[in-house]
Amino acid sequence: MVEKEPLVVARKILIIDDEEDIREVTALSLESVAGWEVIKAGSGAQGLARAAEHQPDAILLDVMMPGMDGPTTFRELRKNEATAKIPVLLLTAKVQSTDQRRFADLGVAAVLVKPFDPLTLSTQISSVLGWS
Amino acid sequence: MKPTAQTGADADAAFAQAMDVLWARFLPEIRERVVVLEEAARTTAARKLTGKQREASQAAAHKLAGVLGTFGLTRGTVLARELELAFARASPPHPDASARLAEATAELRAMIESRKAPA
Fold it and tell me: Hey, of A7, A17, A18, A21, which one would you mutate to test binding to chain B, going by the most B CBs within 10 A of its CB?
């Protein structure tokens, strides 16, 4: 007998952001609106470890962080075979198009702008990653 | 308790309430960022803004720009972006601009203080 696929696919998302308020709002949004599982990391280094350990379906990565910033964290994720293929979406409060182009050129799946609408964030992510 | 996916008006109300709880939790931090900007506006007027203070103000404004709109304060994000740009320049903002800096920070403060807190 062929098992039916569930109507709602539970996704696992890793949020890497040094700002706790953003981490918590993002987590609330993805957990309560979409029912996704959320893993949180407060730094680039912590994010690298959590990504390798938890193998999330996607990573939301802040750009401006002390120590290892978003672009550096992204490059490190790509260097590691265990995390190289996980889609990464950069999250930034930088709105200038030059910044956005620079970030997009890194090879990330998308650049999302802060502030975001917590009610539609999961839809935005699903749309970008082709999750129906 | 970990929230679960819900549908309908109950879910919307529960989500709004959860956002209010987060707002109350992070309000002290948000206020601290506004204090940094208020102080910078005052020292700009007095021609005493230091490089370190300008950088701290730029960082505070950047963080506010990223978070306020998420809590529904879209005008707050606009004001914070204006302040981020004002303090982003390599040299301190001109004292002539201090009136506008004070005006923007005052509006930001009023907006933050008037956002609904959880019942």
Answer: A21
